[in-house]
C-alpha cells in the first residue's frame, strides 16, 4: 500500500508491461501482454485540457487514475492494449472510477473486477487460501484513511499485484459454515437444540417442538423465534459484511466450491453446497429489497392528485378556449392566437417525443452519476432538420406568386384542401365560421359558407347523411384520442413528476387547438354551440379514464416504458400528420405575420422542452 500511495512513481518504477512474468514461482502469475510502454503510463498524468504543460512524472493526484488503469489492464490485457493504442486508456480509467463511487457499486464492481483478474491467473485453484480478497482490500483502504473510496482500494489492489499476490473474488467454502455458526451458536462452539429449532423456523422447515417442561429454554426459543429476518450488517469494513449481503448466482456458488458447470452438482457435492444455500437464505441477501422512491418519484396518492389536476386543467383550458371562440366575433386576433397555439403544439409534441420521451424509452436518461447530454444534442439535431425543411417549405410558399383563386377577401380567410385530413381542415376554420348568423338556426346552420354559397340562405336546410354522421365520428375519434392522452399522462406521472409535467405540457399545447378544431367541425356539421360543447366535454372525460387506468394498473417500469413508447408515436403522428399540415396550408392576408407567429410557437415549444430535458435534474418539487 505504501508503494501505491507514497511518492510519485518515476518511469523506472512502473512495471505494468510484464507484471508477473518475472515471478513465475509465485501463486497465480498473471497472463499479461507486454504492450505498455513508459510513455503510455506517463500519459495518464497528462492534463485533461489540451494546451497545458505536461509533467514527466505521475503526481499523487494521478494515483487513482493509474490504479484504475492498471486494474483494467490486469482484468483485460488485450482489450486494454486496444484502448491504449486508440488513446482511450485514461478515459476508460476515469469511467471505472465513476462507476465505483457508491458503496453498493464498489462492492459489486470490485467483485466482478477481481473475477476477471482471477481468470487471467495460471496455476491457481480456488481451494488455495493465501490470496488477497475484497474485504482485505477494503480494510487496507480504510486504514489508509479513505474507507469506501475507489481510488485507494484500487491502489491497494495494484500494490498486491505488483508484489505478485493472487486474488480471490469469492469467499472460501468455510465462510458459509462460519456464517451459520456465528449467527446461531451461543456460548458453546456447537449449535444447540434450541438454536437449531430457531434456525429451522427461520428457514420455514421442521415441525413444532414438543414442550419438555424447561420453561427457561422455551422462553429462550421464543425469543430467538421472534426475531426472524435478514442478519443485520456488521461494521462497514469488517470481513463478514461484504459477503453477508452479496447475492450469489448459481454459477458463483459452484465456482466457490470449484465445481464444473458442465459436470453439474453430484450428490456428494450437494452436501458441500448446503452451507452456502443456508447462508443465502438466512442473510436475506437475495431477498427483494424495498423500493425507495427517488427524489423525483411520487407516492401513489400524489400520482392520483397531480395526474387528476393536470388532466382537469387541460380539459378546463380547452373548454375555456371554446367559450372564447363561441362568444368571439370574426377578429384577426382570435385567429392569430389559434395559429400561435398550433405552432406551440407542434413544438411541444415533437419536443416532448424526441427530447424527453425517446431518451426514457431507450434507457438513455439516468438520474445517477454524470448526465450524458450527447443523446439530447443529437435528438435536437433531428428537430433542427425538421425545422430547416419547415422553413424551406414556408418560405417557398411565401415567395412564390400568390394563387389568384386563394380566398383572401376576408380578414380571417383560410383556404383549405378538399382532400386534407379532417382535423387539419377543422383547425383551419376561421372564428367567423364558428359563430352562426343570427338568422340561422343554431342546430341547422352550416357555418362554413365559403364553398357552398347556397348555405347563405336563411331557410333551414336538410343536412347531408355524411354531415349527420360526422358529429359521432368526431366525438368517437376525440374520445379515443383523449383516452390515449390520459394513458400517456398517467404513465408519465408513474415514472416521475418531471416526466408528468413535460407530458402534460405537451398534451395541453396540442389539446387546445385540437379541441378548437373539433368544436369547429361539430358546428360545421350543424350542431348548436351548446350541444357541440357537451359532446366535446363528454369526449374529454375519457382522458380521466385513461389516466386512472394507467395509475391503477401499476404497470411498473417496463410497462411505463412501453406506454411512453406508444405515446411518443402518438405525439409524433398528431404533430407531423395533423397539425403541421394545418400550419402549412393556412392562408392569410398577412402571411409574414402568420409565418412569425408559427415560428414563435414552434421555437417556444421546443425551447421549453429542451430546457426541461437539460435541467430537470436540478428542479425540485
From TrEMBL:
Pfam families, alphabetized: EF-hand_Zip, Zip, ZIP4_domain
Coiled coil: none
Reaction catalysis annotation: Zn(2+)(in) = Zn(2+)(out)
Zinc transporter ZIP4/12 EF-hand domain mapped to chain residues: 173-285
Domain Zinc transporter ZIP4 N-terminal residue range list: 35-167
Entry keyword Protease: no
GO terms under biological process: zinc ion transport
Alphabetical keyword list: Cell membrane, Endosome, Ion transport, Membrane, Metal-binding, Signal, Transmembrane, Transmembrane helix, Transport, Ubl conjugation, Zinc, Zinc transport
The name this protein goes by in its record: Zinc transporter ZIP4
Species this protein is from: Sus scrofa
Lineage summary: Eukaryota, Metazoa, Chordata, Craniata, Vertebrata
